[in-house]
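#onboarding

Welcome to the new folks! Below is a worked example of what a typical request in this channel looks like: someone posts a single protein sequence, and someone else replies with the predicted structure as tokens. Don't worry about understanding the tokens yet, we'll cover that in week two.

Example request:
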Amino acid sequence: MITEASSIPIGSMVPLSGASAADGREFRNGIILAIEEINAFGGIHGRSLTPFFYDTRNQSADEVTSAARYLINKHSVHAIINGYNIGSQNAEYEPVADSGIIYIHHNTLIQHHDTFMGNPERYFGCFMSDPADYWYGQGFIKFISWLRDSGRWRPESNRLAIISGSRSYSIVTANAMRSSAADFGWSVCFGPEIVRTPTTEWQLAIDRARETRPAILANTHFYASDLAHFQRQFARKPINCLVYLQWGGMHKTFLDIANSSAEGVIIGTVVGLVHDSEGIAFSHRYRARFGPNSTPEVGALSYSSMHHYALAAGIAGGTGAPYEFNQNRKVAQRLKSLIYRSVLGTIHYHPDWQAAVPYPDAISDPSRGMPHLFYQVRDNGTKLGIIAPEPYTTGKFQIPPWYRSTSTPDSGVRPD
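Example response:
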């Protein structure tokens, strides 16, 4: 029988205010829904879970580290599970490591690899439940090459223009695109042009990119509302090229603001909701709980990690409180060994990086990697369809309405 006195405290550091507040609200929702489901199943070894949230606001190192310390010292949380906090640069790993609790996040930073591999004994409890930002760039180049080589798209040139936000995450992604482009026959004709973000003013960068006549224009910034303004400004005088955005383009905020101007935009994410029967069922449950304007594609991150943690802790014999290093090490080992098919696809932690392995960027088996998904905006800017990779596709690539060209038949080739 579950009793409140035996409840397991779970912490979550989420940006409920500031530029990422739209995502932060969904990260909170994902934790709430997962904990409600886990408690309905009987909790972990008969103990219910109770969430505690801390607003990380602008996600600075001080704010995120303070959040971790507060949750550990005030609420004695057994784990901290959340979406991203871009800007902390792993500073919060120190109080987490000092207390020995489990920390699962989606910061999407290559720096996680460096920090963890630099001292895996100290950071045994730190897990990044999505692939690093580097894979955005490399995977994007492979994707547009697949579009070209399969005949789905016939670019008028090999020119690639790149615009980046000013966060290190965006810059790493942009630089990975630039460094991989030539290997696949692309020439970077513009950028990466770094625009100070957050911002709603993109016209100057778009006009500068237009002068280079690119075949594809990529923006590696990730705030949903900022990207919506980018797309609206692009649509005023569109360039004859494909447009690629990432992460924030999945958010309902983006679709609501960009509206019909987003039709045909390609959106990539190394961590996204798959549209199979499980993903669709989750979306229905999520919107029933949080309303039709919620975004399950974002809430799915914290939701999946919360369930993964509960499974691992259950197998390990229970959770560990702060400073219960032996039990938390058991939970960490189960997280590493338990390959979990979530609504995001497969969460499989690499034994060296302790981050999710991306498919098909780093592994060819979809049952052992998290899919690097590419969506395209459909239905007059109201819906998303997955166009790569197999077996997750729900539709085929379509030439955007502003593009002065014609599509070619599907060749049946998949990106790998």
